What we know:
CATH architecture of the largest domain: 2-Layer Sandwich
Number of domains: 2
Order of helices and strands: HHHEEEEHEHEHEHH
Strand order of the largest sheet: 5-2-3-6-7
Shape: elongated
Bound molecules: zinc ion
Distance between the termini: 40 Å
Strand content: 25-35%
Structural class: alpha+beta
Low-confidence stretches: none
Number of helices: 8
Radius of gyration: 19 Å
Amino acid sequence: xxxxxxxxxxxxxxxxxxxxxxxxxxxxxxxxxxxxxxxxxxxxxxxxxxxxxxxxxxxxxxxxxxxxxxxxxxxxxxxxxxxxxxxxxxxxxxxxxxxxxxxxxxxxxxxxxxxxxxxxxxxxxxxxxxxxxxxxxxxxxxxxxxxxxxxxxxxxxxxxxxxxxxxxxxxxxxxxxxxxxxxxxxx
Length: 187
Ligand code: ZN
């Protein structure tokens, strides 16, 4: 990403919304916004294989592994406004498991770009399934969308929930029920 070019565009945006980009409080804003966008969209410039690299371990475990309450911060592709919340990832291992911190890194990788929550949820599920060749994967995500809270319908308290289930969690109702029950276990 060309931060200098993005900063120029932000300066133009400031003018168009009726601001004076040369007033003191805004002088460094274009550069700051460009830096911020470079970070928030960093997923475009990372490699998923490098993220997963060396964090997949052999294991005899074939039980269900769940990581709850992974923080999610993303940007909706319709309004370029944040949506944020929590994501829960569960999988049934075949012969491999992945480090828990990597589940958070995978979530960040797909969050740090323009997204819709539905696609984000299924991309995470697919990436986890591929990374460990899991028997089944389930991802549930609960997010608040600023594009709904600050504008449009202005529904401040609505939380959108999406889910994606693959493999045995998709085909087997009792495995899926176990996953959902484990998620409900605590709050
Ligand atoms: Zn939106």
